[in-house]
Specification:
2 domains; about 450 residues; BirA Bifunctional Protein, domain 2; OB fold (Dihydrolipoamide Acetyltransferase, E2P); disordered N terminus; alpha+beta; elongated; homodimer
Chain lengths: ~450, ~450
């Protein structure tokens, strides 16, 4: 089956479906997956899919039609034919008088429809993910991950342009250091190891080396529950920069978000249209509100008092984004002035207002997509906070090397992190982060 | 210490060391790490490091010299001064009449020299890695990872230009599927999980979706021994493409290597010079030799017979690269015609020569940097090979979904993989892959 059967075909170069129209009037060879089949007797046609998209092929010759009898969607075909303009066909042209070669036949009917939009209703998600391998061949599913690749490339483009070094930190660590029980443990040649739940320590260490750094890498959380927001494995953008203060750090996070949205809307329009996605409004300066201000606004608007609470409720996150979209000209909001008592040991406390940590959350289209903060950069203060807040042993190999960076000089610095899947989800208007994940992992799902 | 003490300074914008020269005659503010200090009484000067490089500062005023007494390398400084051209200084200019502010003092002397090249002799590598956090502040160490970032970006640039989709596959898997015992196991909410030892199955699945795909992600091998070639965690480039045959696949791998070398030598010259790196010779078509041909050449040249062996010896790999460099105009060689009996179940057997698998190794500067092959794409043949070769259960969740891709149609396809660290090592002429790894992981090392 590997040998192309027609002499004409063997001597022809493959043309991608996206280029078919430009060969109007000529004979071309296309190769791809049987994507759709309508053999109705009167009007027979098939659609072939390749990496560039789709092409429609009109079958008149009964001999060609017969070759396709019993062939299921997914069958690998080579087709030669004459290019005829047809405004109603995908790509604006179709093949006539085709000669079809079945390269690889498919006997089984696909368990999931390839040709129509797949249901993303909450009750259908498990079916969607169970059939992911085949379901991704659906163009609308493909679109999600084309957008995701653009989001990732857009992030890198922004950071490269702003003098950030890209690096890779290890994900196999000698112990859980940031606190929290949500770590995966494994046996490492008889020693205990954990999977990194963040790149926090490494990106800070790297500030001591390159000043401005980022990585985009897998991150692991043994999240004990299956929600629309959480997964056990996800792709994390981790950013850290030296000689910065909180305001500038927020500028960088906001500028990056705007730059990514611009790139996505510039380069992925057909994919965005499939999802009816609307471009987010991200102004030059994203509004900054303190948590107390948001509690006050929310309480006033909804009658439900959140005043004095130490976090934002999910409903409050949604509300403040709507409020901001309507009244502040931004689909994103920075939340500042987080209680110092809930801060992590590496957070820097606000010197002027010691009840607050120098931290922000970035809320975008109703969901927190990023947390950032200034880090405590003074060795003695950091040691004190480590002992007081995290009960950490400075000699533990999980802390020891991190502390070295500070012992030998670290500038004022801060950073933030962002989940690639969550940003993709919000750009496209999806409801569950797993819809923006090729092969999601949660407490119940470890395959495909 | 966070408040800048001088009014002049507070109102000045920071200038990076790389831009100092362009401000000749003006007052500028630089901020960075104390990188070198010479307070000899007669000629006092310091060198400050920031993300752009170094700047030399000449101290005449005794008051300024006194501020630096007891300050160790790594101390964070702000310095204002007048820019004076000085061809012998780094960057071609230095600061005169400086006003120094100690932003963050460092009291301890660095455990490793920052200012001189660090020893990479085999017996010193453990010291190098133990002190990695501080040692990376050495500019020559930094250079390695600037080159690495360029290698990575060069790979992505090549694949984007050639229509490959970037994706992320999960690293948490439901079982070891590719055979071999070199997998890390972990408890996943009461189930057994393993860390991915390759992206093999996922990249093939993705051929069914996007036809041409790549990912650059961490990969895990529980390698039981510490060598100069192996690590337990490394960054893997994984490439897979549909509608391809072996020759074209080798062209893609070779073109990518050449393209990456061009990018690195175009964009990282100062870093390459620090390591006296010489640009590899990678011709338009890299020589292809069968394993038998190499055995014959090697046996003839060295008197040691390897004829009939089923693999290349490490010494043979080095020899064939030297031979190729001298006689074939290439620092890289493709080795073809690998024995079918040693092939993995997913390799395609050569139909014309069934004793061989359609596989290649790419040997570059004496070391195998990539293995590639055509994959068996016919569902029935693949099922047969899975049962015969790997003894695999097609219903195991580690195989089941992979097989789905084939059941519903896969074109002829193949791919290859390449270790980012190994390519970096060979570009720079390093001797151990760990030298090209920020924080190496092996059987003995899990920190920093």
């Amino acid at each position: 089956m590997l040998v192309l059967q027609s002499v004409t075909m063997a001597s022809m170069e493959r043309v991608l479906t996206g280029d078919v129209k430009s060969h109007g009037g000529s004979q071309v060879l296309v190769r791809g997956w049987l994507h759709k089949k309508r053999l109705l007797g009167g009007l027979n046609f098939i659609v072939v899919r390749d990496r560039a998209g789709l092409v429609q092929i009109v079958l008149q010759n009964e001999e060609e039609v017969e070759k396709l009898r019993g062939m299921q969607i997914g069958t690998i075909l080579s087709v030669t034919g004459k290019v005829v303009e047809e405004p109603r066909a995908p790509g604006g042209a179709e093949l006539h008088e085709p000669q079809v070669t079945v390269e690889v036949p498919v006997a089984d009917e696909s368990p999931i429809e390839i040709d129509k939009p797949l249901s993303h209703k909450p009750e259908n998600l498990e079916t969607l993910f169970d059939n992911r391998v085949v379901g991704l061949r659906n163009l609308k599913e493909q679109a999600i991950f084309k957008v995701q690749a653009e989001v990732k490339e857009g992030m890198r483009r922004y950071f490269r342009a702003n003098d950030f070094m890209e690096f890779n930190s290890p994900k196999l660590l000698p112990g859980a250091t940031e606190g929290g029980a949500e770590v995966f443990k494994l046996d490492y040649f008889g020693k205990d190891a954990t999977l990194a739940q963040s790149a926090q320590f490494y990106k800070q260490i790297m500030v001591g080396v390159y000043e401005r750094v980022f990585e985009i890498n897998p991150t692991y959380r043994a999240e004990p529950s299956a929600t629309t927001r959480h997964m056990t494995e996800f792709i994390h953008l981790d950013v850290e920069m030296g000689f910065v203060e909180l305001e500038e750090l927020m500028d960088v996070a906001g500028n990056m978000l705007r730059s990514v949205a611009d790139d996505v809307w510039k380069n992925q329009e057909p994919q965005l249209n499939m999802w009816d996605a609307t471009k987010p409004v991200v102004p030059g300066t994203i509004p900054r509100l303190t948590m107390a201000e948001i509690h006050e606004l929310y309480t006033k608007a909804t009658g439900t008092s959140t005043i004095g609470e130490n976090d934002l409720r999910p409903d409050e996150e949604r509300w403040i984004c709507e409020h901001s979209g309507k009244n502040l000209g931004s689909d994103a909001v920075f939340v500042t002035d987080w209680p110092a008592k809930d801060a992590k040991f590496y957070h820097r406390v606000n010197e002027q207002k010691p009840e607050f940590a120098e931290r922000f959350d970035l809320i975008f289209r109703g969901v927190e997509i990023s947390t950032g903060s200034m880090r405590e950069h003074r060795y003695d203060v950091l040691m004190k906070q480590l002992k007081e807040k995290a009960g950490g042993d400075p000699e533990h190999p999980g802390f020891k090397y991190y502390l070295q960076a500070f012992k030998y000089g670290m500038p004022p610095h801060g950073g933030f992190a962002m989940g690639l899947e969550r940003v993709t989800e919000k750009m496209l208007g999806l409801a569950n982060v797993k819809e923006a994940t090729l092969f999601p992992r949660d407490i119940n799902r470890l395959a495909p």
